Amino acid sequence: MRKLETNDWILLNSIIYKIHIMENMTQMRTQLLEQLRMLVDFDSADFYLAPADGEFKLTSPVFYNCKEDLSEVYDGIDYSRGILYSGKTIIYRETDIMPDEKRVETEYYKKVYKPNNWHYSLQMIMAREKEFVGVITLYRTLGKDNYEISSELTITENTLKKHILNIYRKLGIKNRVQMFKLIKEKE
């Protein structure tokens, strides 16, 4: 597991400060997803809130690199509803709930993940006083692994890894998350 470095802590402090000073909740949630991208490697995200009436459903979505509101699909066939509305704050990966081989065969995977080219997700469920408040889901695509990339480039996996490490060294970084932060800072 990667340890947070000084720059990561500074970024976290900045994120916390920004979300506390923003008055517009939608703007704050959008900003939070954009800022989280600098700390956690993900391709798409959504942030739903619980309705004010306490009903068990998702409302008021904010998206990062997503195109549609999938709350109806989530609420209808999500196999993790029990966790979502449990009233507990929890962070988990979809693969923590069931093995990947079984998960990819579910209706939920086929209707939500597959059309969006997502494969992995991390869910952050927020609760207060045993009441569901909201959920942030970070999605990642399956992408190509080192074997596929090295085969496409007709080089060995070790050569690919060496090139990647050389790029990191030249940029003064240690991993992909730091690379994404560097790219984001240059934009």
Question: Which tags fit this structure?
Answer:
187 residues; alpha+beta; five-stranded antiparallel sheet; 10 helices; 5 strands; 47% helix; 20% strand; globular
Can you offer a commentary on this structure?
It contains 10 helices and 5 strands; from the N terminus they run ααββααβαααββααα. It has 187 residues and is an alpha+beta fold. Strand 4 (118-128) and strand 5 (131-141) form a beta hairpin. Helix 1 (6-21) runs antiparallel to helix 2 (25-36) and helix 8 packs across helix 9. The longest helix is centred in the first third of the chain and has 16 residues, at 6-21.
Number of helices: 10
**Number of beta strands:** 5
Strand composition percent: 15-25%
| Unreliable parts | none
Helical residue percent?
40-55%
Gap from first CA to last CA: 28 Å
Class computed from helices, strands and strand pairing = alpha+beta
Morphology call: globular
Radius of gyration (Å): 18 Å
Strand order of the largest sheet: 2-1-5-4-3
**Average pLDDT reading:** 85
Q: What are the secondary-structure elements, in order, as H or E?
A: HHEEHHEHHHEEHHH
* Main sheet record: 5 strands, antiparallel
Please write out the topology.
Layout: H1 6-21, H2 25-36, E1 44-49, E2 59-64, H3 71-77, H4 81-84, E3 90-93, H5 94-97, H6 100-103, H7 107-113, E4 118-128, E5 131-141, H8 146-153, H9 157-171, H10 176-186
Antiparallel strand pairs: 1-2, 1-5, 3-4, 4-5
Provide a short characterization of the protein structure:
With 187 residues, the protein is α+β, with helices and mostly antiparallel strands. 47% of the residues lie in helices and 20% in strands.
